[in-house]
Design a protein that fits this description.
single chain; 2 domains; alpha/beta; TIM Barrel; 271 residues; magnesium; 8-stranded parallel beta sheet; 13% strand
């Protein structure tokens, strides 16, 4: 699945080379190898080495690099500069557009950058970050955001930062943002939190283990019932001569076309 439409983003420690192949063969739409929070400072170079060795063997993935301004950030870019298997980078702890621009420029403008917004400051500057040249898609670091703000891990409490990222993405002309991960393996919890994300307009979600992507992919795809509604509405609209009948037709028409587009993309048939 192309990264602009990817639903499940499997985040895996860059030290877990035993899982790299399994991650690439999993149901995840995209894979991210984490050289930041999942790796102790004393093992950063080791982690980069494992990533580069896997890339040299034909592996492909995104890499979460360290925050702008740290020595580890500069070392990450130096190591990954010409790696053939690198799909792009996720920039940790993004709080300003300058951090995105600096990263893009260090890569010579040749790499896609996903700003990972993880703080109150980053959320409030989300529009500027989304408009930064080279920003590809926003992602939400929900765990660090809660730590920064003291926000509870509840749908209502987290609605504001998620909505900010959705609005910023729309203003910046980016694909819908990627939500933070769900901690736990319960399918019911994954579906519940996935539904909350979809309702707010997010179009992807970080995953923490190999079992989560299949559930997330289903949650972030249109349901067969939604596809059936879209097909029926479009058929009825065409049968009426494709003439706008009232004020609700245009928004419903746009929704039907969007559902159809995503259904075709993800292979969902009407019920």
């Amino acid at each position: 699945m192309d990264a602009a439409n990817a639903r499940s983003w499997l985040l895996l420690s860059a030290l877990r080379e035993d899982l790299f192949d399994a991650a690439q063969l999993s149901r995840a739409d995209q894979v991210i190898l984490d050289c930041e929070d999942a790796v102790d400072d004393s093992r950063k170079q080791e982690a980069r080495g494992k990533v580069l060795e896997w890339f040299a063997g034909g592996g492909r993935a995104w890499v979460r690099i360290n925050e702008r301004g740290s020595q580890a950030w500069a070392d990450d870019i130096r190591a990954l500069w010409d790696a053939d298997g690198l799909c792009g980078v996720m920039l940790a702890k993004t709080e300003s557009p300058d951090q995105v621009i600096d990263t893009v420029q260090r890569f010579g403008g040749e790499r896609r950058v996903i700003p990972l917004v993880e703080s109150a400051l980053g959320i409030e500057d989300a529009v500027s970050i989304a408009r930064a040249p080279g920003a590809f898609r926003l992602a939400f670091g929900s765990g660090d955001y809660r730590r920064d703000t003291g926000t509870a891990n509840e749908s209502l409490a987290m609605a504001y930062p998620r909505s900010r990222l959705v609005t910023a993405s729309r203003i910046g002309g980016l694909p819908g943002p990627i939500d933070g991960p769900t901690v736990g393996t319960s399918h019911a919890l994954l579906r519940e939190q996935g539904a909350d994300s979809v309702a707010l307009g997010l179009t992807g979600k970080l995953c923490l283990d190999l079992e989560q992507p299949a559930v997330i992919n289903e949650s972030f795809s249109p349901s067969p019932a939604d596809v059936a509604w879209a097909v029926d509405f479009l058929a009825d609209f065409e049968a009426s001569g494709s003439v706008i009948r009232d004020g609700s037709d245009k928004p419903r028409l746009a929704r039907a076309h969007k559902i159809n587009e995503r259904a075709e993309l993800f292979g969902v048939n009407p019920s």
